[in-house]
Amino acid sequence: MCRLLPRVILLNLCFAASALAQSDQHPNGIGVYFDSQATIVSATVPVDESFALYLILTNPSAPGGVAGWELAFHCACQNLFLLGYSFAGDGVNICDPWPDICVGIPPPPLPRAETIVLMTLNFYVLTDACVEYTLTPVEYPSLPGQMSYNDGADLFNLIPLHPSSGDVALPVAALNCEGPPPIRAPKSSWGQTKALYR
Q1: 119-155 burial, b for 16+ CB within 10 Å, e for fewer?
Q2: CA separation for the pair 71, 164 (Å, rounded)
């Protein structure tokens, strides 16, 4: 019992810490979150209330930050009223029509960080119906078949974005739904798994 107790305490601390960590630990992840720290992908908001939603790049690999990005943002938005949206870094959308979003960011680029808020949206809830958010490539993507962003240090360096759900066919966030959308689990090796039980 004495040998098991420290392991149980350590395991509980690991779970508590992971609850505060960002949801997608993979490089160049893109997701929709209900908080600006990229931790909440599912929420319940009552009818006649407003809420903020954040489009966030997680773990960018570009050394120079973000100078632009492109993706298509999908949702069953007939259940919501869009109050407004804004792009980080005074970005400008050069794509039309919605859901395609192609944002150029004037210098300086958004600085590199573990999480970078690219866009903030504010919605008003009209019904309590489930709303799922998905992210896909734009109709005519710069990288064939990919969502992407520009490295702030080299504008010609386009880096693919990977949805936090692991697949563009799966939702990255959910509002007023039964359960949370799938999130890719961090990859672990057999050695890491065995180490948990030593």
Answers
A1: bbbebebeeeeebbbbbbbbeebbeeebbbbbbbeee
A2: 13
Per-residue pLDDT band for 134 (boundaries 50, 70, 90) equals: very high
Q: How many CA atoms lie within 13 A of 151 on its CB side?
A: 11
Whose structure tokens read 């908001």? 45
Check if the beta carbon of residue 126 is closer than 8 Å to that of residue 176.
no
pLDDT digits (tens, 9 = 90+) for 51-79: 999 999 999 999 999 999 999 999 988 89
Q: What is the pTM of this model?
A: 0.81
Strand partners, 57: 30, 116
Distances (CA, A) of 137 to 111, 125, 132, 148, 162: 24, 27, 17, 8, 10
> Which domains can be identified in the chain, with CATH numbers?
24-181 (2.60.40.680)
CA angle 149, 154, 157 (to 5 degrees): 50
